[in-house]
Design brief:
291 residues, alpha/beta, TIM Barrel, two-stranded antiparallel ribbon, 13 helices, 44% helix, 15% strand, transferase, methyltransferase activity, BHMT-like, Hcy_S-methyltransferase
Amino acid sequence: MAHLTEMLAAGPIVLDGGLGTLLESRGHDLSSSLWSARLLAEQPDEVRAAHAEFAAAGAQVATTASYQVSYDGLGAAGFDDAGVDALLQRSIRLAREAGAPLVAASVGPFGAARADGSEYTGDYGVGVAELRAWHRRRLHVLADAGPDLLAVETVPSPAEVEAMCAEIEGLGVPVWVSLSAASTGFDADSLAAALRGAASAEGVVAVGVNCCPPESVLSALAEVEVDIPFVAYPNSGERWIAADRRWAGDGGAVVGLVDVWLDAGVRLVGGCCRTTPADIADVAARVAQRR
């Protein structure tokens, strides 16, 4: 916590970008339901190398490849619970070895493990108690593995925010909570209320949004008054065309909005889907000018 506090006091912190995007650009097929978890198991050196590319570009935080690692998802692929624990622990070790000053253990939403698009709606058909139970073991294993903080990210609904904030109490690890501003599970009022609620949870050191269009960041945060920093790491600006299973449009929109976000109180800034090491290098250069 001291290291994170010192870095925040020195100025905005640069996050990494789209780990899956980079792994795909390195020639890996991530189309299976295991996504990057398959590479954690089969080609860990590639995961480490991808983290290192972002660190070399100026990322001060390596966000682990644990986003989609779950006991039920990997259980269906033949892993027992101990094997899943080992992959979660490996994700932190690989990120640490890549050289960024901080490691954030990624904790994706329930829908990410389903790989059915429900991570963008929060329409799971399960309640808060079930979500708490589902997240519990993974949160504890990641926290015990020694990250600098947990990245609870792409949360798509008020119910899952409530569940995850309840489960992080007592973990003893700083947490940022980032909501999906593109999720249909929120409207403007419920998104703002969820951010305020998360900001008051024990251990939470930043709240914000990710995995959304860059232009939606400011509107998501504009009406939210909290006493902790904001985190923002949207997508590149390209749009996912689900019917064609492809991205379309122009990327590179993140760096042009960094100053606006910093003026609004963002202190942890980077990119999500389709953002590359080159994008993060541009973000890092812009942040350096602001320090």
